[in-house]
Amino acid sequence: MILTQKQKIGNEGEKLAVNFLKKKKKYKILEKNWRHKNGEIDIIAEDGRITVFVEVRTRQKNALVSGYYSITKKKKLALRPVCCEYIFQNNLEYFRFDVVEIAYHQDDFEIFHYENVPFFGE
């Protein structure tokens, strides 16, 4: 399969996010690109007793819309059934949603981690 430049950048962003969550935040990575029907969640991790669903957004540093704000209501609606299925299958009691934004310019990048992002309350 031939990847587009956008897909390559997205994959690289997800790798950076996984490394950040493992090494800096000490999360245990449970799943990467977990799929259910037509949806996918980028990363599922554990932060202590809490299961964390992570959406990764990779954007150029000068993008008009940041990665955090690029997650539309439509995207949140698509993520909900995926996360709900994982919650159901694993009988989870404690969970939350995070966003990891990778802002890049050439080989320079910054990582922003937003914890406990509202996905269900909107």
Biggest beta sheet summary = 5 strands, mixed
The CATH topology comes to Trna Endonuclease, Chain: A, domain 1
Q: Report how far apart the termini are.
A: 37 Å
Order of helices and strands: HEEEHEE
Can you count the helices? 2
Helix content: 25-40%
Could you describe the 3D structure shown?
The protein is an alpha+beta fold and 122 residues long. The chain has a single domain (5-114), classed as 3-Layer(aba) Sandwich (Trna Endonuclease, Chain: A, domain 1). It contains 2 helices and 5 strands. The protein has helices spanning 5-24, 73-89; strands at residues 28-36, 39-47, 50-60, 95-105, 108-114. It has a 5-stranded mixed β-sheet with strand order 1-2-3-4-5. It is globular.
Show the helix and strand layout:
Layout: H1 5-24, E1 28-36, E2 39-47, E3 50-60, H2 73-89, E4 95-105, E5 108-114
Give short descriptive properties of this protein.
single chain, 122 residues, alpha+beta, Trna Endonuclease, Chain: A, domain 1, 5-stranded mixed beta sheet, 2 helices, 5 strands, 30% helix
Outline:
The protein starts with a helix and ends in an 8-residue tail after the last strand. It has two helices and five strands; from the N terminus they run αβββαββ.
